[in-house]
Inverse folding.
């Protein structure tokens, strides 16, 4: 298992390097100019100096290697300094955003909590809803509950999140006025009232994402339960005289959860991507919103770093899914 | 086995035995195939199975309805979707404008039809590109052992790409130059279709590869090989027809993903230009005034959801119908 993990980790390095190169070249090929917003009254030689100051004067491969060094060497050193109070990174240039002229990672660190609370909570709730639904609809296959569950989950992943979000806003935000339609990120939870306000503004975005995730996971859960319910060991367990509850909730459920756990792990990075849309609908200023504004402003370092972080998440969670699968299922041996 | 399945099977048994019985009483048949009444081809079998999936049949009828709405509708409802009638702006449901008008007085019914044409065209074209790349890579990596490892590495690489951010990036970066070369609408269409196609072929490639690997071990492939069939004919005559069913299922589900992705891009303001309606664009344009005119948001959204739901159900039905192992479950 350990050798497998190490091998996969080593394999992830060229993959990630290649992805970063693809993103970098894509940005490089773009006709967009980061100085496009500079007024035309600025004389050309000043503009040229501004270009130099942004580091755009060198050839692309030098800038690519420089970015790699900043991402993998300077940033970790900087965090190390922050934690232990050392000064290894003194005088080193961090990745700087073109828009705000502040280090990219500081901006990202400001935005992560918003995304994590909304996306993380909705994924958790989605999983918690999906698993019981999957169990019941598999156990009572073709009952009215199963038919309804199938239909609702089909609707759940056919309705794009931007539509469900907008419909929820119209119904609960505009007509009924139950929840605020715009997410207020300046809200600080200090007392009971501000906590309630935070819960109220989180209800709608979390519901939208949770429903979408629950729809997909409950399908997997149902299929996996159905697969196991027909196995011989279930008949054996029943023949031994075990109660139906033990058979279903202990024997079948544990075995059915194995593939579902990997599906949950694999879906996690995709949720970050999908949250881009939901964040836009509810105006949550998380990572997705940051990416979109950076794309519009031609903020190359920000776009590059953010997209690369998404790629790292995907590679990491694929690895985690594989390892967890190996740990949970003793039949799977990678070595 | 469900009840409707059992009924179907018994019905078929009766049909099958009744017809030869009638013939036998007359004359012994020379050709046993003719004796059994109509012949059963694979596709007729699939269709029979598909019809028994009630949800898929309803979805198929609805989907054909949507296609007719966007394909024939503009010939019956001849208002130009881009015609600005500022005096009739923001009108409700009236006889002149059955679904109202938008903030510039453009007819919503006509815009929904025109938008649907683009959305469905994007979905179909992107799906064709994705399926073509996917089957090509799947078949080559399954059939030629030497190409298997590099092609699968490539597939894994593509699977590790953050797709939505990359799509956003590609569309923003290349919208301008392509619009200048091909015209605003055509440029964006080519861009979006190829971007979606190039980023959604991986699932199809993996499924096809797996099936090809299984097929290669079968006797009929060995037989074909032993009479010296060249690789090209082997793939076209023996491999491709046998992996057609997973390809078709992947294609159906691919339409749904492509439609959703296109409308998501339009919704983020990175899709087609404003005067060029698609369902996603209509939704995006209406969001600003959704408190006053909710119907403008809900109508395109409903159409997107309904189309995608239908396509998903059809895909589900196709999968059930084409996989003999799960038939009747």
């Amino acid at each position: 298992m350990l050798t497998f993990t190490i091998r996969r980790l080593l394999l992830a390095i060229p993959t990630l390097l290649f992805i970063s190169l693809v993103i970098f070249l894509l940005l490089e090929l773009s006709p967009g100019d980061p100085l496009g917003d500079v007024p035309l009254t600025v004389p050309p030689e000043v503009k040229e100096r501004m270009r130099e100051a942004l580091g755009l004067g060198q050839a692309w491969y030098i800038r690519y290697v420089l970015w790699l060094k900043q991402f993998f060497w300077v940033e970790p050193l900087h965090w190390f300094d922050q934690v232990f109070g050392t000064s290894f990174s003194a005088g080193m240039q961090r990745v700087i955003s073109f828009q705000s002229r502040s280090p990219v990672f500081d901006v990202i660190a400001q935005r992560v909590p918003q995304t994590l609370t909304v996306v993380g909570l909705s994924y958790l709730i989605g999983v918690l809803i999906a698993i019981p639904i999957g169990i019941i609809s598999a156990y009572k296959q073709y009952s009215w509950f199963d038919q309804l569950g199938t239909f609702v989950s089909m609707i759940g992943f056919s309705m794009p999140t931007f539509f469900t979000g907008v419909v929820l806003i119209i119904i609960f935000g505009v007509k009924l006025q139950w929840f605020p339609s715009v997410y207020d990120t300046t809200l600080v939870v200090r007392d009971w009232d501000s906590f309630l306000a935070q819960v109220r503004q989180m209800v709608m975005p979390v519901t939208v994402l949770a429903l979408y995730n629950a729809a997909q996971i409950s399908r997997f859960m149902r299929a996996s339960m159905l697969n196991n319910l027909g196995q011989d060991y279930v008949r054996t367990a029943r023949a031994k005289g075990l109660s139906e509850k033990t058979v279903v909730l202990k024997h079948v459920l544990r075995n059915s959860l194995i593939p579902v756990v990997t599906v949950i792990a694999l879906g996690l990075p995709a949720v970050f991507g999908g949250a881009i849309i939901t964040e836009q609908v509810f105006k949550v200023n998380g990572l997705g919103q940051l990416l979109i504004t950076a794309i519009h402003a031609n903020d190359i370092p920000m776009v590059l770093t953010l997209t690369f972080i998404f790629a790292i998440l995907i590679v990491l969670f694929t690895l985690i899914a594989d390892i967890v699968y190996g740990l949970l299922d003793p039949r799977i041996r990678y070595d | 086995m469900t009840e409707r399945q059992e009924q179907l099977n018994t019905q078929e048994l009766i049909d099958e035995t009744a017809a030869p019985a009638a013939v036998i009483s007359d004359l012994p048949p020379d050709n046993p195939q003719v004796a059994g009444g109509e012949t059963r081809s694979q596709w007729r079998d699939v269709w029979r199975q598909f019809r028994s999936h009630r949800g898929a049949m309803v979805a198929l009828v609805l989907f054909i309805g949507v296609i007719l709405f966007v394909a024939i509708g503009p010939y019956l409802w001849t208002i130009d979707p881009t015609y600005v009638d500022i005096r009739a702006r923001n009108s409700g449901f009236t006889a002149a404008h059955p679904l109202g008008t938008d903030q510039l007085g453009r007819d919503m019914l006509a815009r929904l039809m025109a938008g649907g044409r683009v959305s469905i065209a994007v979905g179909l074209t992107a799906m064709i590109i994705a399926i073509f790349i996917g089957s090509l890579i799947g078949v080559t990596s399954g059939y030629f052992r030497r190409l298997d490892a590099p092609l699968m590495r490539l597939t894994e690489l593509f699977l590790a790409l953050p797709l939505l951010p990359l799509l956003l990036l590609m569309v923003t970066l290349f919208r301008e130059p392509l619009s200048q070369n091909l015209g605003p609408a055509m440029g964006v269409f080519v861009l979006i279709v190829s971007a979606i196609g190039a980023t959604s072929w991986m699932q199809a490639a993996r499924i096809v590869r797996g099936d090809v690997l299984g097929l290669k071990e079968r006797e009929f492939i060995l037989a074909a090989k032993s009479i010296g069939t060249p690789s090209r004919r082997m793939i076209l005559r023996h491999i491709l027809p046998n992996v057609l069913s997973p390809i078709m299922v992947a294609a159906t589900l691919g339409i749904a993903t492509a439609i959703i992705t296109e409308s998501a891009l339009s919704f983020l303001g990175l899709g087609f230009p404003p005067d060029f309606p698609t369902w996603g664009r209509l939704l995006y344009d209406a969001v600003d005034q959704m408190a006053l005119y909710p119907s403008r948001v809900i109508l395109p959204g409903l159409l997107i959801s309904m189309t995608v739901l239908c396509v998903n159900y059809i895909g589900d039905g196709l999968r059930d119908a084409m996989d003999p192992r799960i038939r009747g479950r």
The radius of gyration of chain A is 25 Å. The mean pLDDT of chain A is 82.
